[in-house]
Structures are given as structure tokens and as C-alpha cells.
Design brief:
There is one protein chain. With 279 residues, the chain is α+β, with helices and mostly antiparallel strands. The chain has a single domain (49-269), classed as Aminohydrolase, N-terminal nucleophile (Ntn) domain (Glutamine Phosphoribosylpyrophosphate, subunit 1, domain 1), CATH 3.60.20. Helix content is 34%, strand content 23%. Strand 6 (85-89) and strand 7 form a beta hairpin. The longest helix has 22 residues, at 100-121.
Amino acid sequence: MEANFDRTGRLPAAFLTPGSSSFIDFLGQHSPDLLPGNRRLPEGIVEAPHGTTIVAATFPGGVVLAGDRRATMGNMIAQRDIEKVFPADEYSAVGIAGTAGLAVEMVKLFQLELEHFEKVEGATLSLEGKANRLSTMIRGNLGMAMQGLAVVPLFAGWDEGREKGRIFSYDVTGGRSEEHGYAATGSGSIFARGSMKKLYRGDLTEEQATTLVVQALYDAADDDSATGGPDLARRIFPIVTVITEEGFRRLTEDESSALARSVTERRLEQPDGPRAALL
């Protein structure tokens, strides 16, 4: 939204009128056409690139959020190196599944929403409050979702009040659920969740948690054609992020490369991955 100064150099009244600390409410009042949910719906079925699998897992010191790099359009690979995990602010992150273009736009608006609230109120939202704001944004996209342009993210972050990492999942209507331990969304989520179900423990270290999510993404790619596994030839590896009391951190390319290569090399010996104990 442009400020559009008048001839006197003053800002329009919309920018000077006290109002809500929500940037989305501000747009809804003064430029509602800029909100994704208020745009004219396309006619018929629209083919657009879709992001696929996102996974998350908690450990005693925080939470890990990761995603594969493939975007698909029908039965075609639309992009091999798309980024699906973004910081929402210093202590939280969003992983996107669904219509890629709308999802990235929603994340950028969500980032601005949190930044605007902090500037107006002089304090950050609680993690619960952030999760609720994202739920409202997804609900505003319901019309698009009914046209097949759905956005279904995973939200994770460090809860300063409870001093632990937390994960929230959503449906297309904006319904929000807190997930305990681990979670997955996207086309390969059923396989990723099954993988984590057998391997997850409550006492994982940060290193073990990052390995767990890469193992889960590998299993998802093994059974879901829309999920991309580590591409050693092109040096395309999953995006893995860690959120602790020290804040958001994305693993460097060298770190993610080493992690993905170690998992891949182990799979040469055990193609189906690590085995859980029967009892």
C-alpha cells in the first residue's frame, strides 16, 4: 500500500487515524482490494504450482520445522528448489503447503502483521496470539480454497511463557489445532507422520530432532511423487530450521548438506530407514 503524499507533503488521514494494531484490519478498512481473500475469484479450475510436504518436531530445548524443495503442477515438477519455510518473526516460523504463490504472499503479510503489532503496541504477541492471527488469515482465504487454491501451513515457535517449543496445524477453513511432539502437512504428510510416529521420542537432542525431520521427508519422498528428496547431483537439500529461546536459526547449506548426505548414505544400507523396536 503506497502512502501517496499530498501536495503539502502530508500523509493521508488513513495513516494518522488511531485504530487497530492489526495491519490486516488497517488494509481491510482502507484498501480491502489488497487482501488476498478479497480478490476476484478465478473461473473454473486453475492450475498453479503447489508446495508439498512440511514437517515439525519438538525437543526439550525448542522445535524444528523443515520442508522439502519440490513444487508440482499436476503431474509435472514446477520447481525443484522452492523455499517453503520462512521466519515469521524472531521466535516463530511458518512452513507452507498448498498453492505456492498465495502461500508465499500470505507469509509476507503475516510477517508484516506481527511487525506492525509490535511497533504499535510496543510488545510482541504471545505465540498463541500469533497462531490465532494466522488462523484468521487462512479463514479469509476460504473463497480461494473452495476454488482449489488452498493454503495449509504449519506454524511453530518458541513459547517464552511456557519455555518450550510448540507446533500448530491448520485446515483450509482456518481451524487451528496444537500438535504435540510432531506434525506434518502437505501431500506427503501421511508418510512423514508415519515415519515420525515410530522414531519420535520426547527426549531428543537438537541434532536428533533435525535428523528425524530429514528422515521423515526422505520417507515422504519415497512414497509421494510430489515430495522431493535430497538431490545430491543438483545440491538441493531440505530446508531445516530450529527455533529455541535464542531465536530462529536456519541450518546453513553445509549443515543441511551434511545431514542429508548422512541420511542418504545410511539408506544405501537400509533403504527403508531406521527400524523402531517392537517392544
